[in-house]
Amino acid sequence: MAITGKVKFLSLAALAAFFLVIAVAVANGKTANFDIGVSNYIYSLRNPAATAIMHGISSVSSTPATGLLTAVVIAAFWFKNRRKTALFFGATLLVSVIANNAIKYSVHRFRPDISPLEDASFYSFPSGHSMNSLVFYGTLLYIAHKSIKNKQLLAVLDAIAIIFVAFVGFSRVYLGAHYPTDVAAGFVAGTCVLSAAIFMEKTGKFKKVLAVE
User: Fold this and answer.
1) How far apart are CA 204 and CA 122, in angstroms?
2) 200 vs 152 pLDDT, higher one
3) Could you count the other beta carbons within 10 Å of the beta carbon of residue 164?
4) Confidence of residue 205 (pLDDT cuts 50, 70, 90)
């Protein structure tokens, strides 16, 4: 058990280190050519139908929408007398939002101005849509895997969540609201938050932090 815990901790540390590598590269302008090249290619795929779809995906994964969905999920767990699960879910999402905003303030990367289709404000790195969506659906999947025994159903839920979160990231670049490295960093940072939350829940540390039984 101790060895497993060390492996998980080292994996989390490696993810955090990878995120720092991306952040430092972005801060020093080392990713500019990559970001512009990939962004221009994605912009070349634009068409009215795809743009409408991307706006829809981006809207349902925005911070207000994710916040509303989080409140609904928390309420559902709470009224089903799964209060520990409700607190775990809410705390994980709250940490994700706080961490995302803190990183944005620290890096101070401005939004792309090449060809935006969305009037996005605040700093760009990392993508909040990408990070918080990964944490939201990743946490739901973790809870589902603890509760649902049907492996086929779980496989379908996993596939749907992965595809949707990937499209959330793609939509942010497509709409010109983020650079590709913003999205990549959002996914890495979200994985760090999710992994840390799961580690704390599995080891009982989450219960101690919030003093819940």
Assistant:
1) 36
2) 152
3) 14
4) low
